[in-house]
Design a protein that fits this description.
Elements: E1 12-13, E2 18-22, E3 28-32, H1 41-44, H2 49-53, E4 55-56, H3 64-73, H4 95-101, E5 119-123, E6 128-132, E7 155-160, H5 168-171, E8 172-176, E9 186-197, E10 206-211, E11 219-225, E12 232-242, E13 249-254, E14 257-264
Parallel strand pairs: 1-4, 5-8
Antiparallel strand pairs: 2-3, 3-14, 5-6, 7-8, 9-12, 9-14, 10-11, 10-13, 11-12, 13-14
């Protein structure tokens, strides 16, 4: 049969640490890269089989230290260059400032038009403990940078009001944990929508592992579909998680094979 490098076809060679394989006639599988500290399969899990079929991941079976050793052996001048840990294709930018600059709209106030969205910070018990200059810079699960606090506070929710009568500070609230072990930080149940499976659709309930963020180790769970809406899921994790953020991807795997992904949904009521 024709190889993936068939003459006349175009392929994308990515430095991402992942691994794609063809299994059988027309079937594509995605696997975690050998170097789990550099594994990019959390992001690659949203690609279609057609897109994956056109990709090659030559670093999928390499560890970073081996890549450096090979680069040094070949005399490449950047073999010991410091690894990037941010958004590599943006260069050296302040992430908070970049996010704020990308969220400007005509409806925003004069203060907000500068790319700044101040927010009031309240605890889960309702105590107002301060303000932050940029709500966009925080995500659920992140430690909130609030001065004068004796214990760390972690973001558990962001609330935005569309009421035109509220000031900027009142319209945006960041809810943080009252204590480091605040129950609001933890959940073992995650709702998700818009599933994307790589390969055949699995049968349910599905016993597998899942990640809700990049570089998280897979956590064992059980995936169930709702009876009526089969595009919606509820995932029960064996152990509670922190930092479950609506809008983020949840990626399912069987050991190192990526089964697919979905989008974490907010829970109402």
């Amino acid at each position: 049969p024709p190889s993936r490098r068939e003459v006349g076809k175009h392929f994308i060679f990515s430095p991402s640490h992942g691994e794609g394989e063809r299994e059988g006639e027309g079937s594509i599988e995605l696997w975690r890269g050998l170097d789990h500290t550099k594994d990019q399969s959390y992001f690659l899990a949203t690609l279609t089989e057609e897109q994956l079929a056109a990709c090659e991941f030559p670093l999928g079976e390499w560890r970073k230290e081996d890549v450096r050793a090979e680069a040094k052996r070949r005399g490449l001048p950047n073999w010991d260059r410091h690894s990037t840990s941010g958004v590599c294709f943006l260069g050296h930018v302040n992430l908070a400032e970049f996010l704020s600059s990308q969220s400007i709209s005509p409806e925003r106030s004069e203060t907000e038009s500068k790319g700044i969205s101040p927010a009031t910070v309240v605890t889960t018990t309702g105590e107002v403990i301060g303000t932050i200059p940029s709500a966009e810079a925080l995500t659920i699960g992140q430690r909130a940078p609030i001065a004068g606090q004796s214990a760390p506070r972690y973001v558990v929710a962001q609330e935005v009001s569309n009421s035109p009568t509220l000031s900027v500070g009142e319209a945006r609230r960041v809810v943080v944990s009252a204590t480091p072990d605040d129950p609001a930080r933890f959940t073992a149940i995650v709702h998700a929508v818009n599933p994307h499976w790589i390969g055949s659709i699995p049968s349910f309930p599905l016993h597998c592992s899942a990640r809700i963020r990049h570089r998280q180790e897979p956590q064992t769970c059980t995936v169930n579909t709702f009876v009526i809406r089969h595009s919606s899921f509820v995932i029960h994790f064996d152990a509670p998680l922190t930092g479950v953020a609506p809008g983020q991807a949840i990626v399912f795997s069987d050991v190192d094979r990526i089964l697919g992904s979905a989008t974490i949904a907010p829970v109402h009521g």
